[in-house]
Q: What sequence folds into this?
């Protein structure tokens, strides 16, 4: 009884602690969505002296900045020796900036460890698949599971939180920097041990684990959890998928560890972390991370870091506003809450210069960010660096301290955003369409044993998102676990793992009148990558009104063709051979493979309509298809422009007022056609039918209600 009492008491205490942390996260989020919009720069006072900090503060004030982000790589400056903290320079920077009306977002510096730490604990470093520790000399090279590293992280976080918990000039903490990027996986003994424990908790018995992984194949059956190894890409796909899930959990837990330290010391402090890769990170479940943050943040580099960066595309990708909004919608995950951008691109980066940043783009990117609910944006960096890894980065100021076009563009941006926010307050995007993007599927496609190695999951999800944005239709990007009930149109591209619960909710959405688009590969596997009850799970086949008779894959340099009305286009990678049951064919294969078989079908289901795409079509076919899909949905577009460099976003403020935010990235004036009467929020001018938006400019209108 005594042991049982202690056990239940411990369970109760853990539950109470979890509830308390959840309440603090909610409170921090509540605080973060009131007040003002923040515009400023990432600032590095540890690189300079006090006199320059005072000059910089005056320059920031002149630029109408009201926020500076600091500390992300300053661990040695904060703790030059083990346990010896020197934070006076940071005190001075915070105080000086505050005197000029500039608040501070502080970062924990844990993404780049000081050399003394490495020398004292060389086993802190990540171990590669070759069994060798990563050498010192970069960032993000410490193992998130190493206990010495975690203790150092906890200590520096607590030191910062305690020092600044009552400082009114500090609005919050950014935990770490760009988690789960660069070196996302580790193969050290500590990671192996924790992976084995993670698996034991998940599967309970080794028999269940063997069944889940299909270890009978290639004689990989395990006798106990101690025999588990750390898988590499191209290993057993079941174990590799679990390893990816495990490391996502490790990164999330690493964030929580630091967040909880801050919340224990400063409960009302807003806590965030910044997602790298311009939001296109696949190694951590960002939907789960969003639930742990007061506000979720991402670093926005729309020219040099796009989703193509995931696939090693160094050729470049011309700027497309749809890709930037895609990133922001991934970060939001369908949630009605604001986002932050702790690093906003101002010019050239330290990476391969794939494209030149056009003058005026950074200003317009900030308007686009505001159109998607961004409440904080800091240009990276304030001043270009004199030396070091990122000495080629352009800043708001160059290192010679001469004000040039980037300074004046940043000044104009800050003034415009603050003026808009003073008139509207917080605005958040509103969407009636949803595109399903699932991290489980990301991980499934990452292994070499995929449905077709040349098929890049996120690239193809974006293709459908882009087809919607080209029609000026707002679309959330959400998990398969998200609530589907509020959407009139749901697009499900290549969702290889489709749970029975998701299928049921999709059926209910169609019964209630939603329009659904399904593609091939969706519903092909369960959560363990086992085959389902049919080539495509039978529930989705019934929903689509088809039967899948066969499936084939094709090397990426080869293709097939399909004919859709008066248009013929290429299709790639994967082909379902289908037979219509209750559906009707709307397009057919017309090339060498499956000639005459349906390539796209349409089926009535309940009050809704369900489309099925049996292959991976080129963008022009996806565009044509989505126009038909939208025409058969209940979605109405309030404003439209056919130019690909015009961004149109629909928003709503906290009082229910509706807005349309137009950002024209093109070099020519563009005509916007309105389906409803609107008025210019700055001038009060009414536009009953249309309005002209100047080249490289924006227009924000309120819907007359």
A:
């Amino acid at each position: 009884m005594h042991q049982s009492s202690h056990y239940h008491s411990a369970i109760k205490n853990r539950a109470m602690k979890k509830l308390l942390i959840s309440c603090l996260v909610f409170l921090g989020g509540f605080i973060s969505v009131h007040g003002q919009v923040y515009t400023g720069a990432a600032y590095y006072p540890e690189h300079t002296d006090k006199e320059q900090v005072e000059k910089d503060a005056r320059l920031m004030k002149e630029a109408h900045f009201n926020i500076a982000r600091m500390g992300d790589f300053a661990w040695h400056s904060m703790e030059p020796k083990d346990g010896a903290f020197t934070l006076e320079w940071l005190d001075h920077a915070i105080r000086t900036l505050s005197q000029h009306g500039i608040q501070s977002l502080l970062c924990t510096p844990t993404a780049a460890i000081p050399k003394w730490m490495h020398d004292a604990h060389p086993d802190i470093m990540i171990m590669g698949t070759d069994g060798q520790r990563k050498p010192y000399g970069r960032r993000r090279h410490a193992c998130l599971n190493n206990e010495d590293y975690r203790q150092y992280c906890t200590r520096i976080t607590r030191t910062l939180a305690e020092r600044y918990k009552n400082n009114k000039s500090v609005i919050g903490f950014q935990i770490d920097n760009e988690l789960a990027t660069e070196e996302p996986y580790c193969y050290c003994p500590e990671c192996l041990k924790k992976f084995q424990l993670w698996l034991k908790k998940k599967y309970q018995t080794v028999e269940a684990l063997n069944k889940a992984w299909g270890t009978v194949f290639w004689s990989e059956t395990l006798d106990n959890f101690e025999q588990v190894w750390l898988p590499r890409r191209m290993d057993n796909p079941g174990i590799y998928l679990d390893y990816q899930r495990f490391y996502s959990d490790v990164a999330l837990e690493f964030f929580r560890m630091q967040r909880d330290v801050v919340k224990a010391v400063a409960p009302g402090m807003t806590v965030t972390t910044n997602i790298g890769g311009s939001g296109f990170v696949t190694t951590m479940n960002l939907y789960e991370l969003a639930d742990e943050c007061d506000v979720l943040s991402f670093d926005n580099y729309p020219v040099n870091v796009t989703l193509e960066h995931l696939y090693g595309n160094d050729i470049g990708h011309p700027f497309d506003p749809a890709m930037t909004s895609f990133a922001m919608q991934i970060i939001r995950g369908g949630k009605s809450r604001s986002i932050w951008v702790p690093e906003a691109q101002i010019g050239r980066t330290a990476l391969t210069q794939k494209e030149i940043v056009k003058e005026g783009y950074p200003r317009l990117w900030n308007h686009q960010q505001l159109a998607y609910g961004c409440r904080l944006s800091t240009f990276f960096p304030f001043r270009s660096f004199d030396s070091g890894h990122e000495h080629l980065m352009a800043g708001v100021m160059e290192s010679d301290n001469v004000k040039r076009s980037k300074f004046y563009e940043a000044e104009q941006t800050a003034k415009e955003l603050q003026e808009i926010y003073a008139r509207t307050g917080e605005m958040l995007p509103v969407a009636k369409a949803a595109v399903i993007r699932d991290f489980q599927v990301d991980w499934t496609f990452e292994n070499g044993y995929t449905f077709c190695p040349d098929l890049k999951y996120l690239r193809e999800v974006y293709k459908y998102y882009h087809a919607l944005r080209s029609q000026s239709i707002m679309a959330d990007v959400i998990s398969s676990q998200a609530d589907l009930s509020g959407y009139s149109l749901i697009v499900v591209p290549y969702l290889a793992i489709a749970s029975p619960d998701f299928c049921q909710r999709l059926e209910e959405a169609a019964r209630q009148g939603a329009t659904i688009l399904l593609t091939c590969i969706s519903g092909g596997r369960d959560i363990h990558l086992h085959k389902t009850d049919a080539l495509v799970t039978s529930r989705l086949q019934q929903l689509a009104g088809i039967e899948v008779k066969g499936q084939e894959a094709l090397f990426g340099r080869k293709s097939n063709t399909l004919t859709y009305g008066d248009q013929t286009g290429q299709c790639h990678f994967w082909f379902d051979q289908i037979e219509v049951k209750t559906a009707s064919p709307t397009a057919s294969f017309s090339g060498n493979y499956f000639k005459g078989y349906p390539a796209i079908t349409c089926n009535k289901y309940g009050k809704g309509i369900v489309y099925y795409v049996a292959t991976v079509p080129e963008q022009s076919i996806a565009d044509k298809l989505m126009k038909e899909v939208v025409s058969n949905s209940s979605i109405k577009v309030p404003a439209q422009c056919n130019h690909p460099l015009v961004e149109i976003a629909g928003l709503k403020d906290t009082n229910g007022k509706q807005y349309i935010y137009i950002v024209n990235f093109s070099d020519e004036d563009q005509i916007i056609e309105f389906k409803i009467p609107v008025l210019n929020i700055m001038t009060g001018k009414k536009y009953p039918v249309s309005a002209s938006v100047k080249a490289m400019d924006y227009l924000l209108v309120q819907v007359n209600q």
